[in-house]
Amino acid sequence: MSADKKQQLKAIRGMNDILPPDTELWQNVETICQQVLSGRGYQEIRLPIVEQTQLFLRSIGADTDIVSKEMYTFDDRNGDSLTLRPEGTASCARAGIEHGMFYNQQQRLWYCGPMFRHERPQKGRYRQFHQLGAEAYGWTTPDIEAELIAVVHDMFERLGLRGTRLQINSLGDQQTRTQFRDALQNYLRPRKDKLDEDSQRRLESNPLRILDSKNADTQEILNGAPVLSDFLSEESSQHFALLQEFLVQLGIEFEINTKLVRGLDYYNDTVFEWINDGFGAQSTVCAGGRYDSLVEQIGGAATPGFGFAMGLERLVQILQEQNAAIAERSSKIDVYLISTGDAARGQALNMQSKLAKIGLNAVLHCGQSSLKNQFKRADKQGARVALIVGEEESAAKTVGIKILDRSAAPQSQQTVKQNDVVNAVTNCLESL
RNA sequence: GUGACUGUAGCUCAGCUGGUAGAGCCCCGGAUUGUGAUUCCGGUGGUCGCGGGUUCGAACCCCGUCAGUCACCCCA
Questions:
Q1: C1’ B71 / CA A321, Å
Q2: ipTM for the complex?
Q3: pLDDT tens digit string along A413-424?
């Protein structure tokens, strides 16, 4: 024993364990989302968590905060610069290029998994967090955009999520953004000293992001600023109008937020965001948009793309706060097996196998415990039926079946042969 | 990266102006020598986040550090 106290090993800051019973909710959420996606022809793609740093530098944009100060970047043993992925779209596009998936083809893909960003943790924002995203490659038309927005809409509906608003905007094409950027800078430069500190800094580096500043004074100044929609080309305007028409036909409500921009450089034309008010500062649950230049930017043939990413921690937390039906514990133990002595325990193990095989949730009491204690555990865990193999039953190859439901009659224990346990238990559960 | 608040048993928390720790829940045992809710009795469990300092004496005061929460920033 060393005199030094052993330091307690703890999880890395901002990287959380997800424990039962929460894992059950996570599974339910993921299952529902995946069903919605495959119902519309989207296929899963599984991507590595580590990529060459270069991929993110070229895709997300070197000037963005994500790249400049939030990435987990390190050299591996070969001296290559690697990065824990901060988002999924770049990897997805990379994989598509690498495997020729965009060559004369269109793709509907989805992915799900952990992402990493070195930010200060707070509600709805962690250093390891999970995103479920979908990407559609090879379509330039707004029909695919409406389809993907409908996918998210369906997910929220089936999850029982309440209070989400959809905001949409069009950033226009590259030329539009350049023109608008100039106009915005020309408007803001004379008013620079009235802007908040962060916005002053971004005036030259990333002026579009000033638009969604939370500073009240800055927003005041922006009221008189040029509006992006006035700069849209005829083509972009028509594209955006058609998307709106589709959404109306789908019965999906939306608001146009002309100040909605994205933090990643690769977006153009349509962008959208689902917001859940009342969840605090990190209210965006899902966001996405069109990125027609990304694939080319990272070395593929020009391929249009449209996609979204959903923050699962945020989604799960909101569902819990809203007491959504899906957040209620649903897993229920059907049978709890109680036994005394090794011979009886062996027989109980056998019966457990049989019951599990037909799809029942059968839990075996392991370890030395009094019968009383075993019953207590059965009750505490909400088991519907207890199976009892004591010494008498063990010798006679029988088993006691007792309904634990409190509304059941007190004298509800019966004894059957162990060989008939499956039928007896099935009948018993059906009668409840 | 910045700020505010917080950090006592597995969980939720109490602990008066400094006098070396307490409740409820949980868990275990008993009242009921083969039977679960309830009730009653008993028990396990903490170097008070960590490290320094002040003091005869620190959970309490001071400094540092780490972590959590929320907000800014950023973003899903």
A1: 20
A2: 0.88
A3: 899 999 999 999
